[in-house]
Amino acid sequence: MRSLHPMTSQPPAAQFKQAGAPGWTDPDAAEFVGRLQALGSHALVANVEAQALVEQAGGHPLPVIVTDGAIGMSYVAAPHSAYALYPRAELDLVDLGWMRIPAGAAIAAADRLLRSLDINRAVQIDNWLLSTCLHGDWKGEGLAELRQRLAARFPGHYLLIRSVDDWSCPELTAALRGDGWLLLPCRQIWVTDDLERDWAVRKSVKNDGRKLAQSGLVVEDVARLTNADAARVAALYAMLYIAKYSTLNPQYSPRWMQLAVECGLFHLRVARDADGQIMAAVGIVARGGIATNPMMGYDTQRPQSDGLYRIASWLVGDFALRQGLRLHGSAGAGHFKQQRGARSEIDYMAIHAAHLPATRRWPLKGIAAALETLAVPQLKQRML
């Protein structure tokens, strides 16, 4: 694993502590799935109930998550939650003005239709139970053979691949289109092409770095997560993503945090106070020349003037810059990310249903068309 080397982005007064010369490698799919099988998904992610297996595609080992239709799980394992329950929850957080009533009606219609299609009965390929599943060096090799194999083994399930877009995985996206998969628009995501050019030079980024330098916090790249630290990281994550945002976000346990570090699912960076207490933590996935942070947490009970969200975000950008990676900023906090050099793209969920009855297949085409016609232009308008 490659160690992190100082670069000009590091604030001069900040302290960095490295444990075991951490860096990044591709996560181990077999170990990840083995842990899920041994402990059970529910013990690791409280709002996910699924089976897990490893499949090969063109020499790439891929984790496959199989769900049997339950409603109400986290969107990382339930497309119904991604397209109905989560948007419904967001209606209470966003001021849409006169659009609120038609948006609510559209979400209610999508809710009913997706339930009738049993959309959560699905086989989800290369799904790491993260908000963003980077696909690394898999460019779609062996896709058709994998599709045929899984459709034969699970004849009543949809086949899904999340986090598909023309920015992070253009070859895979093209392969999916060529193999007849339907691409449903899913999210507006924020991406940074060149951290040195687009991120490090920003005044807001330099201010974030100064905030860290003035905080007295010590940044540590964690190679081994103790039980106490795992509990703290899980609690910080829950303060932000579960308590503040939505219970439909994955509800990770302390054991999940340890699994993620041990099997290389993500690289963990934390910021500790003078007593050694973790005040902010980020889990960074790095695959195929791209970094993303599907896990972030900080002590939301601290005053906003402490700038812990800014510090946590800076830790992600700093990692990507040091490693020479592009940055996939996932969804949300668009204005904050734009100020730090990000631009917008559209993220898709790929679905294959040719092996299913027409009654479960054809309505998806209507949903995809409606999303492209109504949702995508709205999202693109927000990009400007």
TrEMBL record:
Compositional bias ranges of the Polar residues kind: 1-12
Keyword vocabulary terms for this entry: Transferase
Region: Disordered, residue numbers: 1-21
Gene Ontology terms, MF aspect: transferase activity
Protein name: GNAT family N-acetyltransferase
Record organism: Sphingomonas ursincola
